[in-house]
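Annual report, structural modelling task.

Input specification for the zinc ion complex:
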Amino acid sequence: MNWIDPHVHMVSRTTTDYEQMAMAGCVALSEPAFWAGYDRSSAAVFHDYFNHITTFEPQRAADYGIAHYCWLCLNPKEGEDMGLTREVLAFIPEFLERPTVLGIGEIGLNRVTKREMESFVAHVDLAMEHEQLILIHTPHLEDKYKGTLQIVEALKRDSRVTPDRVLIDHAEEHTIDMIREAGFWTGLTLYPNTKMAMDRAVDIVEIYGSERLCVNSACDWGPSVPLAVPAFAMAMRRRGHGAELIEQIVHANPAAFFGQCPKFVIPG
Ligand SMILES: [Zn+2]
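The model returned the following structure:
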């Protein structure tokens, strides 16, 4: 079965991960810009990072027949620094023309502070000015409900934003209603322990249906599984769901969301 992982951080994974993902049926993936594990010391480091995810990673993926796409931003955690945000936002447009960039992301909130919100709004402005898709990170644990609500409210207030062109990720049972009711795409992250275990994700599909729903591994340098999407497919099969529904969630849905950017093409 062919599948797409719409949220991966391959900069922190090995080439063997690409190989195993390809052997398991991965045909495309997308890499949102994220926190490096430490606060970067200057805007120049982001410039290098954007170069890396628009040149080196697509080549590593292509060696295994996987199409690698990416999203650019200064992440929510470093968004606390408005000066740095402005410096980075100033050169993002020069990268938006590159053939594998799908839009702005993963933007959002981390500790749900006023300055993070300012940085988030500045990114949304940039996305709107350049007619870009948006991929959104929602905060984890106790900040998730409050942060998701603030993000959803801010986007609903902005008349330039078309909900169908925004995916809100790391959704959970208590945030999924507000995301779907406003017409956004929903992302479920299949982390082995801290976020969404497989059966919880299958429960959500059974309760809410599969429309505008994607699943991802969000694999990075933390505990995470690059093969989480096919593991979800297996969990779906075990619960008696057919190939058509599974294919919709792991392939057709992300392809439809990404396909709103004319640069998105699946190989083969
Ligand atoms: Zn991420």
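The pocket of zinc ion is lined by residues 7, 9, 32, 34, 106, 218 (CB under 6 Å).
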